[in-house]
User: What shape does this take?
Amino acid sequence: MIQLSRTGRGRAWALGLALLGAGCGEDKQVLVWDFPIEESQVKNGPESDGSTNSPGRGQGRIEFDPATNAFLVRIRFEGLVGDLSQLHVHGPARADTSTPRHVIEFLGPPEVPESLAATQGLFETRVPLSATQQADQPPLPPEAVLGLLQGGHSYLNVHTTVFGMGEIRGNLGHPVPGPSLLREAQAP
Assistant: This one.
């Protein structure tokens, strides 16, 4: 079981207080991760330096809305060598390492929708905060999922048909409180 350290609990408590205080006005605050997605961040590729030498790139934004207890996600990608085959967040891992541990599943396995099985595209979704189940790992309870993301040691991995271990990736870093840019865009 993953536990937050005193520092991690303190950071989570401070961010929670900031979000509660910020939520008193009209513009409710969310936790925001804005990050580039690049080949240079891949650490387990086939090249001697761990890269893939892919021309692929992208931009990611993940928001956690405590009012709905859900993540709002927007991932743009382009220039991939292979078609998108899986998309998920891994952690914990420093920016210079990788881990097989999944934190949040977005796409695949088993299949990616045909419209996203491409070398470029836009993926948007809403994912409720829930426990993560992974066959070869112990379950992660929801509070551990959020704690890992807040700890700044998670990354989005973009897997493709050519690079099954990941073609490009984006290190999430620490979130910052801010207004939601995705809430209105993803409203039903």
Notes: Residues 1-26 have pLDDT under 50 and may be disordered. The longest strand covers residues 29-38.
